[in-house]
Model the fold of this input.
Amino acid sequence: MNRLIINLKDLKKEDLPKWGKMNASQMVNHCNLFIDLYVNKIEVPWLMRAISRLLSPIFIKYILSKDYTQAPKNLRTYSKIKVDNPSIDFDAEKQKLIEQLNLIDNLEGKVNHPLYGKVNADLVKKLVVHHTSHHFHQFGLM
Done:
């Protein structure tokens, strides 16, 4: 997580992505929402939970088999973590992401993931690092 926090400090509000539609503020907000989802702060409909729990072993294995630079681009985003607002407080979101990454780094034991059920904290850490690294790569931070 320290590497991500160090790289995040280099991000500027006016930085442009190599691909995709999000600006820098939206990307940081999206990464925050992704972490909110992973620590169960965002409610997921029961049908989505059921399908995710069935498919998650395949999905997780697929995602983690790829380097963050090889992760698929422009995937469909779950509506509750999709960011359309172009006027997000960049500095506040950046500070929140630092706090969120520290929160994830301190997870231990089992985590009740809203999509995958009870999983090891290490898996949550890997998935958050992978997702965040993917978006940092999008903005040339990695």
About this structure: The chain has a mean pLDDT of 93. Strands lie at 110-113, 117-120. The chain has five helices and two strands.
